[in-house]
Amino acid sequence: QVQLVESGGGLVQAGGSLRLSCAASGRTFKSYAMGWFRQAPGKEREFVATITWSGEITYYADSVKGRFTISRDNAKNTVYLQMNSLKPEDTAVYYCAADYRPIGTVVTTTPNGYAYWGQGTQVTVSS
What we know:
Elements: E1 4-7, E2 10-13, E3 18-24, E4 32-39, E5 46-51, E6 58-60, E7 68-73, E8 78-83, E9 92-100, E10 116-117, E11 121-126
Parallel strand pairs: 2-11
Antiparallel strand pairs: 1-3, 3-8, 4-5, 4-9, 5-6, 7-8, 9-10, 9-11
């Protein structure tokens, strides 16, 4: 089992940048595929980015491709989401998610593909 704690959210102007972090407990972090999702008020939770256990494969939603970068440091049990060129429509609560997937290269973009979730961190982009 793994526990996830997000940090790094805040208020930023359009065009600015933020880096979200997700710290995971447990010694088997490197066995988990990690993902970032977001949920805006009145909307469903949507996929943002995912990374395989090794960090070899990443995948992004079209809406963030070229602007956001997901990465991980298995030695620090942490996954990151670097967000550049932020837009007001990026405003949402951002959630970190994990799923035990120690081998393979399958990427999952749906919330029900992840067993563990953090509490979320608010990102607000002003115009």
